[in-house]
Each structure stands twice: as C-alpha cells, then as structure tokens.
Structure to design on (82 residues):
C-alpha cells in the first residue's frame, strides 16, 4: 500500500512538472507572437516610408528629365540662331 501511494505521489509530481513546462512554453509562444506582431508593424512602417521615398525620387527624376529636355531644346535653338 505504501508503495502504491508513493508511486501516485511521483505520478502527481510528474504531472505537475509537465503542466509547468506547458505553461512556460505557452508563455514563450505568447511572447513570440507579440514579437512577431511588433516586427510586422515595423515592417509595414518601413514599407510605407520606402514607398514614399521612391515616389519622391521618381518625382525628382521626372522633374530633372523635364529640365534636361527643356535645356536641350533651348541649346538647340540657340545653336541654330547663329
């Protein structure tokens, strides 16, 4: 009888240890999920900022291209007038 009670106590302790291990793993999973969500938020912000920078750069390139065409035409007209 004593051996049976001792075995039951060991089994109960093993179950408690397993529950604690599961709780720790669940807590880590929650931390990982939070970290992933934070990373996604930062990534979205970087994507938005990058898109805005690309649009700004494209506008500057287009503006410079217009100037270059205008300058080339002006130079062409000036050269022909001589």
């Amino acid at each position: 009888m004593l051996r049976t009670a001792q075995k039951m106590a060991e089994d109960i302790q093993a179950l408690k240890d397993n529950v604690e291990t599961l709780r720790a793993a669940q807590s880590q999973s929650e931390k990982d999920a939070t970290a992933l969500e934070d990373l996604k938020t930062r990534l979205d912000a970087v994507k938005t900022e990058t898109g805005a920078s690309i649009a700004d750069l494209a506008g500057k390139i287009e503006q410079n291209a217009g100037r270059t065409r205008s300058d080339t035409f002006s130079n062409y007209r000036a050269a022909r007038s001589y």
